[in-house]
Amino acid sequence: MDKSGEAYWKATLGLLTKILAVWFLVSFGAGILFADLLNNIHLGGYPLGFWFAQQGSIYIFVALIFIYAKKMGEIDRKFDVHE
Amino acid sequence: MDLQTTIYLVVGASFSLYIGIAIWARAGSTSEFYVAGGGVGPRLNGMATAADWMSAASFISMAGLISNMGYGGGLFLMGWTGGYVLLALLLAPYLRKFGKFTVPQFVGDRYYSKSASVVAVFCLLTASLTYVIGQMTGVGVAFSRFLGVSNETGVYVGMGIVFMYAVMGGMKGITYTQVAQYVVLIFAYTIPAIFISMQLTGNPIPQLGLGSNLVGQDITLLAKLDSVVTDLGFGQYTTTTAGSTLNMFVYTLSLMIGTAGLPHVIMRFFTVPTVAAARSSAGWALVFIAILYTTAPAVAAMAKTNLIRTITPGVVMENADVYSKDSAIEYEQRPDWMKRWEKTGLLKFEDKNGDGRIQYYNDKTGNEVTKAKIDAAGWKGNELTVNADIIVLANPEIALLPNWVIALVAAGGLAAALSTAAGLLLAISSAISHDLVKNVFKPDISEKGELMAGKVAMACSIVVAGYLGLNPPGFAAGTVALAFGIAASSLFPAIMMGIFSKKMNKEGAIAGMLVGLSITLFYVFAHKGIFFVKGTEYLGVIGGANSFFGITPEAFGAVGAMFNFIAAFVVDKFTPEPPEHIQHLVENVRTPRGSKAVDGAHA
């Protein structure tokens, strides 16, 4: 397989795009743009849109960074550029 | 033991701890002074970053703001945490690989230009200084309230403490002190929240309590709060947005990129040993931040509930009619905590309709039905004003918690303000001693001389910050917003393009930084006055308040960043591309292998 710097960078950007898409969807999407719509659904005692804006997006942000760190580690080893 | 003695004991114990750590972790070299020798593990660094990042604004003000704003307050929660995703993905690992002490040094080397570095120093100093003024003001307020001294004395005591451990310990001392400060502040924040969540909902975990039913009732806390605040003429708690959806969107984005671009936060990622550690450390930082940030909305909603419950006891825990004559308590029967805070002037009562009872409601409501009911009840205007900043500090008193909890909150507020002030001062001093003195004025300075210059610069910045903290230019919230606006509109785009665009050249980067910075300053100053001097606002020039699509000045950073990107790309198109070796440098920064210990050598 192609182990060049360009291929590595392409793989990195691919991962970034996916993670940032989720980042955008949970905060700006569910927390702001679609909050009113989601408020019709309830999560326990929380209206869902409100939950995303004040709780959910934060939990997902944490998960996103750890997923990113893990996947980047895999990409690093695959392209043999790890430390 | 009385409250004052308990506060002296708890605050005193926490300070001896910080100073003890500072003595133990003294910095001997420039590497230890700037980046703690580059040997801090990801978890420890994450904890220090969390304390560094969470300032008096997070600890004291945020929950109060959310309490007033309701749903719209979520923009602070999402903005100030979402920025870490950007930091972890777009900046931190690459800057760690680059392996230099400071942010302006990256800008200077990447854009092969001392001018670029100097522009970055200017942006850094403006952002950090405005931020640190707010911290010193907060330190002064907290000290004066809890130690019973004047505001001036409070600021002087704060300056002395920061001076002792920041100047002596540098990054190494600050890192370990910040870890201790994090522990103090997180306990101080969560323990009262747990008690209060227990009292209101029976659930000890505030994050779950906020989504639970009220004790002994078949209705959720949020639904009850919604219905009560609507009766009182306020907007519904769970749906009221911040201005408009567009404003909330842009405001959130500004806080996110501002967070990612703040130099004192970025610097923390130079202290970890590897690129991989920089990535996971951002995750750990956010874990430690999230503990406070997911508790804050519970504190906010429960404080609002408790406030209304104090004034109209039957309305929240039973189903008494808000408008009935005897729902509100008589002023003479008010609890002790209200009397204590009345003395500070941050809580005020004025009996407008002369019935001896406290009416708390929104007298500017546009709802005709509510208005009719209010008139029928004979209310003559809102009688109680509560400053948002007292919500967190008064919270344990409102819930009648024991003295040691109140003392702990005092220590926590001080820890939050001092840890951030120390981190900011380090960013300021390294920019001056490393990026100005060593890079521009005196390149042949010895390591010892540079260390001394760093300490002198730090001592001077403490004095300046203290002076400005005593004479704040306008109000703190405005200056903090400016700090974020500057970081978002100037530094973030320059660093990001430096990594993600191989062809971005120095002309583009400098033009971008200057355009982003000036547009943001222009818009903010139009609203708040030139350098926050009252009376110099020029709203007429820009066509009225929030004239740019209804966006408030606090939210403008993202727009400034957009202009930064556009200016940079346009100028880049018409100027020569960067030299070959710079393009290689960018390629090198993108791959983790070969990361070395962080050093200060200028390319």
The gist of it:
Chain A is built from 3 helices and 2 strands.
Please give a structural write-up.
The complex is a heterodimer of chains A (83) and B (603). With 83 residues, chain A is mainly alpha-helical. Chain A has one domain (5-78). Chain A is built from three helices and two strands. Chain A has helices at 5-33, 35-38, 48-78; strands at 42-43, 46-47. Chain A has a two-stranded antiparallel sheet with strand order 1-2. In chain A, a hairpin with a 2-residue loop joins strand 1 (42-43) and strand 2. In chain A, helix 1 (5-33) packs antiparallel against helix 3. The radius of gyration of chain A is 17 Å and the shape is elongated. Chain B is mainly α. Chain B folds into two domains: 3-52 and 73-304 and 398-590, Sodium/glucose cotransporter; 312-386, no CATH class. Chain B is 70% helix and 1% strand. Chain B contains 24 helices and two strands. Chain B has helices at residues 3-24, 30-35, 42-53, 56-69, 74-98, 103-110, 114-147, 151-201, 206-209, 221-231, 245-261, 263-267, 275-311, 313-317, 336-344, 368-377, 390-398, 403-441, 447-470, 476-500, 506-528, 539-542, 557-573, 580-590, and strands at residues 347-349, 384-386. A two-stranded antiparallel ribbon of chain B has the order 1-2. In chain B, helix 4 crosses helix 18 (403-441), helix 7 packs across helix 8 and helix 7 (114-147) packs parallel to helix 21. The termini of chain B are far apart. At the A-B interface, helix 1, strand 2 and helix 3 of A face helix 5, helix 10, helix 11 and helix 13 of B.
